[in-house]
Specification:
With about 500 residues, the protein is of the alpha/beta class. It folds into 2 domains: about 120 residues, Dihydrodipicolinate Reductase, domain 2; about 300 residues, pyruvate-formate lyase- activating enzyme. It is about 40% helix and about 20% strand. The protein has 15 helices and 18 strands. The strands form 4 sheets. Strands 14-15-13-12-11-10-9-6-16 form a 9-stranded mixed sheet, with helices on both faces. It binds iron/sulfur cluster. InterPro entries: Coproporphyrinogen-III_oxidase (IPR034505), Elp3/MiaA/NifB-like_rSAM (IPR006638), HemZ (IPR023995), rSAM (IPR007197), rSAM_horseshoe (IPR023404), rSAM_sf (IPR058240). Its EC number is 1.3.98.3. Pfam families: Radical_SAM.
């Protein structure tokens, strides 16, 4: 059935606490733009359910959830009793996470009765599923119990439960070695040579290498960078990892890259930083001169992103480079001595079927990279591709087959999965996943994704995350998203010390 012929699904929930989770879970089964959610504290099991409607009621005193979904032809119901031990121990009121989990299970079952769908991540709707595996590892005795809990309590498939525990096991020693006074730095450069049609990021295209915006942005960035790092040093903090990302940082000229790296090196001893990554996302922006600039400094890793090895797809998605550009950049980088190079690819690009992705995999395998990051395309409303028809999208089953083939290829080339995250509207309800040869994991990716260290983000659209180890929580501190507002703010105000008031030694 096409989206145009679908009716609005009216959802009634009892309180705000469950409204968000209901919306997130329901969107796995029904288009989010066609759901209407209302909160009514007076509902109970006898409340009439509209046609096409969903009623979600939780009887906390009786420790029970009830979900009822009514269509023109059927009524589906599901009720769920909260775990007996937790009721006995009177712990349910204090354990909102478990309360939410059980509610989601009840809702998941009723939605599956109505619109059955293969959902390998079960009731999980968040971005960071590995966090759950880490939490369960602390509570349970071994990985087998963790896997069992993921399958039983979160309805995650066997395959994904095994993947999560494996990723968590790779990350554990890395996270244990994280010193509390260390901070990672993210330098955001949201400028690109053109805008990819699937992009939902704030990145702005520049008009060639002489676009004045490049220099204006760099000068604003340097103001924030100098002030932020000096302030960090005053706080007694040390830089653990640096990630220069975007956008496309390699869109800067060699002279501008020199200015950026030289400024960094003049205020901080870069050889003490455990890892520095530079994203050269668009292969056509990388030159020998730029690589030589980077090589003067301890830049450990590059990311060069072919995305696909099919030229017609690259042209379709408005990436102004070819596979030939990629090979040139790759060979130049190797010849200049960069051995840690990540390649990003995307599955689910418009018009790409199983054979296109298999071709990409064949090319990747021949290159034997140390790191490979696989994205399952997620089309957000702000991307120009958001409205492509279903005939242009990869179906769930094919996406799943391809993810499995990538995994087989990665393992047979001695790579292991080391970080993963999920997004809304992701192809095949899958995940984005990073593979690496053991010992070459990108530390920044792990620290940033698992939120176990403070990340100081500079640049337009960068979001700093202040980590409070005692409560194991983070506070987000966003920079302005608009590049023009950011540039103006840096010249007028500079680094926003006030946002970091509670950041003590
Ligand atoms: S390279 Fe990345 S940030 Fe730049 S336009 Fe493409 S998807 Fe967006």
């Amino acid at each position: 059935m096409s989206r145009h012929s679908l009716k609005t699904l009216q959802i009634i929930v009892q309180d705000d606490f469950l409204a968000y989770e209901t919306r997130e879970l329901a969107r796995l089964f029904y288009p989010a733009e066609l759901t209407l959610i209302s909160v009514d504290p007076n509902i109970d099991e006898t409340t009439p359910v509209p046609t096409l409607g969903l009623l979600c009621y939780s009887d906390r005193a009786g420790c029970r959830f009830f979900c009822c979904l009514k269509t023109e032809s059927h009524t589906f119901t599901e009720s769920w009793f909260i775990d007996g031990d937790r009721v006995k121990n009177h712990s349910i009121d204090f354990d909102q996470k478990l309360f939410k989990r059980d509610f989601k299970k009840c809702l998941f079952k009723v939605m599956q009765q109505w619109r059955p769908r293969q959902l390998p991540w079960g009731i999980l709707t968040g971005v960071r599923p590995v966090k759950l595996a880490h939490q369960l590892t602390q509570q349970l005795e071994n990985d087998e119990q963790v896997k069992d809990s993921l399958e039983t309590h979160y309805l995650i498939s066997k395959k994904k439960a095994a993947l999560l525990t494996e990723v968590a096991a790779v990350q554990r020693p890395i996270l244990h070695r994280t010193a509390p006074n260390r901070v990672s730095l993210y330098i955001g450069i949201p400028l690109c040579p053109s805008r990819c049609s699937y992009c939902s990021f704030i990145s702005q295209p520049v008009k060639g290498q002489h676009d004045p915006l490049l220099e204006q942005y760099l000068q604003a960035l340097l103001i924030e960078l100098k002030q932020a790092i000096r302030w960090l040093i005053e706080q007694g903090r040390q830089l653990d990892t640096i990630y220069i990302g975007g956008g496309t940082p390699s869109v800067f000229s060699a002279k501008q890259i020199h200015q950026l790296m030289d400024t960094l090196a003049s205020i901080y001893p870069l050889h003490q930083v455990r890892e520095i990554t530079f994203e050269a996302g668009r292969p056509d922006t990388l030159t020998l001169e730029k690589l030589r600039e980077l090589h003067q400094y301890p830049v450990h890793r590059l990311s060069i992103n072919p995305q696909t090895f099919n030229d017609s797809t690259l042209a379709n998605v408005n990436r102004h480079h070819t596979t030939h550009d990629f090979y040139q950049a790759w060979e130049m980088a190797l010849a200049e001595g960069f051995s840690l190079i990540n390649l990003d690819i995307i599955i689910g690009l418009p018009g790409e079927g199983i054979q296109h992705v298999r071709h990409t995999l064949k090319e990747i395998e021949a290159l034997q990279p140390t790191n490979l990051t696989v994205h399952a395309l997620a089309l957000k409303r702000s991307s120009s591709l958001a409205m492509i028809g279903d005939n242009q999208r990869l179906d769930d089953q094919t996406a799943d087959i391809l993810m499995d083939e990538i995994e087989v290829m990665a393992y047979s080339n001695h790579m292991k999965p080391y970080y993963l995250y999920r997004q809304k509207e992701i192809t095949g309800h899958l995940e984005n996943i990073g593979y690496s040869l053991p010992g070459t994991e990108c530390l920044y990716n792990i620290l940033m994704m698992e939120e176990k260290q403070t990340i100081l983000g500079v640049g337009a659209g960068a979001v700093s995350k202040q980590y409070f180890p005692a409560q194991d929580r983070i506070r987000r501190i966003p920079n302005p998203k608009s590049i023009q507002v950011y540039i103006q703010r840096m010249h007028e105000v500079g680094f926003h010390y006030k946002d970091w008031e509670s950041f003590h030694k």
